[in-house]
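Usage example:
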Amino acid sequence: MSQASPAEILERIKPLMHKRVGPYNSWNPVTRTHIWQWCSAMGDNNPLYLDDDYRGTHSEFNRDRAVAPPAMMQMWSMRDVHGNDGPGSTTDNLFEILDALEAEGYAGIMAVSYDQTFHRYLEEGDRAHHYSTIINVSDLKTTAIGKGFFVTQLAEFMDQNDELFAEAKITYFKYQVPKQPPGAKPSSTPTKINRIHPVENHDHEHFWQGLRDGKLLIQQCSDCGKLRHPPQPMCEHCQSLNWTTIESKGKGTVYTYTVMHYPEIPPFDYPNAIVLVELEEGVRIVSQLVGTKPEDIRIGMPVAMKLTNVQEGMTLPLFHAADNA
Amino acid sequence: MSQSGSPATLARKAAIVGIGATEFSKDSGRSEMQLACEAVKAALDDAGLHGSAIDGMASFSMDNNWENEILRQVGGNELKFFARTEFGGGAACGPFVHAATAIASGLCDTVVIYRALNERSGLRFGSGQMMNNSPLDPNIINFSHYFPYGFMTPAAWIAFSARRYMHEYGATSEDFGRVAVAMRDFAATNPNAFFYQRPITLEEHQGSRMIADPLRLYDCCQESDGAVAFVVTSVERARDLANTPALIAGARQSIVKESRMMTPFYGDSLSGIAEFDACAGDVYSMAGLAPDDIDVACLYDHFSPWVLPQLEAFGFCDRGEAKDFIKDGHIARGGKLPVNPHGGQLGEAYIHGMNGIAEAVRQIRGTSVNQVAGVNHVLITAGAGVPTGAAILEKG
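Running the assembly step on the lines above writes:
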């Protein structure tokens, strides 16, 4: 792979831009058979194309001449299946710029956009050819699939009188294929990253529902009365499966803590202070400590809970220094 | 310390006779399956055995490579025994317990143990993004009480305990730093270590950026790609092989009721490691040994602070005194209990603790690049903060 800088690459390929390459001639004139094959394959039943009687009722069309669907514009002057252009076509390399980028290590190609403009219908007996011009190469861009250049090609589709019947602007992205595929990580998607939602299975849903209802619920064994958190189905003291909950006052002290600095995981703000709170009721719970400078956090400091709706469907018992309550 | 039933039945019945590994890197450029096959083949070659000798396999639940696939590729025919161990790096000793048990019981004769991972170029455990959303996954159920707060990296979970240890015993970040400096010193003279020729000073440790207070960058192990494999066989068969056997003199797994997956926050103490407190006595009594008999320790050093309570649990110093033991230079090069002479996971590579066990075997054989003189017994431990295990290897 070349070590040329993006600026050097652009310097080299810019002279190749705006060169109109062509003509690319057609192998055949527009015929009813081609139109029928295309309409049949595409399932396009528009009567305008092949129904002479229908066309006869519209004065702007010739009753006896089948009309080509506009979307067929590029197929008239396409190469044949052997890759040969129609008779009399240019032998100039249309893809000079793409080849040059490939030589610099930008081997990946992805079609980005295809803007089409139709000026008139082709009819049976017309004969098409086209010209092609690279009209723009972007600066180096970084995307989710890799770094590369956006290349825009203008294709001009002409009839036998050298009049434009359609044109298209086709943009490709020529990029360096990363060694590791980017996978499913939605790093480039604009959707907001939410906090990971907890599993609310049979054993845990009451806890999260309680928070949404405005209560911090602590599981309590119905038989021996011991409290437990995080939730579990069986009492570890008496093996009872019967349980209820009590509502915690949300007051306690910091048993231990950490302040997270790296990696910065969205959507959290950093530094992110995490505390293990010993609740007055006698169980410990993990949460975030908000509103206290990291250097002021101490083991043993009193804290109080504030139920906070952090995102849709998620209420968390965040803690703050009790003195600021 | 608890005493289990009749543990002597597996003591000194099996021996590690082959070790193999790939290079340790940040981007192996090949599949975990290929890494596993390369390491297993290397271990077989080291043992002087053909793949057809294998009749058992043991690995980690987290390993992505199936036994049948490896068996076929390394020239094996049939397995009579295969077992996996859960809990991330806590699985590092379990496979040796399983292998020794299977061999001692006569169930099989030669067990291959392997662990292969692209932890740096593939799934990074410290990224905070390793979890799927399956409500059936016990990991997700456990971590559900932490992830919504952003409390989702191993360094942060360990930091809870490190902070308690500092609070209860007066340890400082420098005490943790001395562990990292000792490991990096060993790594600096180990050509297989990622940090070969790159030692650090305590000042550099103190200047390294904060990851999850009180853990700094140099308190955290690396992320690595690589594989390590072992061949374990009966003591009788080991006598016919060329390498000095590393006998499994004592080995046990350990779960206690306070155990959680990386989040043991609800027991009486966070400053110790309850699983090691529970199993240390058994491991010594099974081997008929005491802390003074241990010449080298290969301790699980995913994060430097948790080396300290391991030294205490296994009786090398009293509770809360590991910081002084370390300050006196005992775990470093030339100390009375060199810890991780390969450089540990802080210095050599993070292969879920298996590279430390390979070093233990080299120390027994006398073939380490940082060889300690006169090694007869090496203590090995698996991950801390999770259900885990420990073992003592003995020169056979």
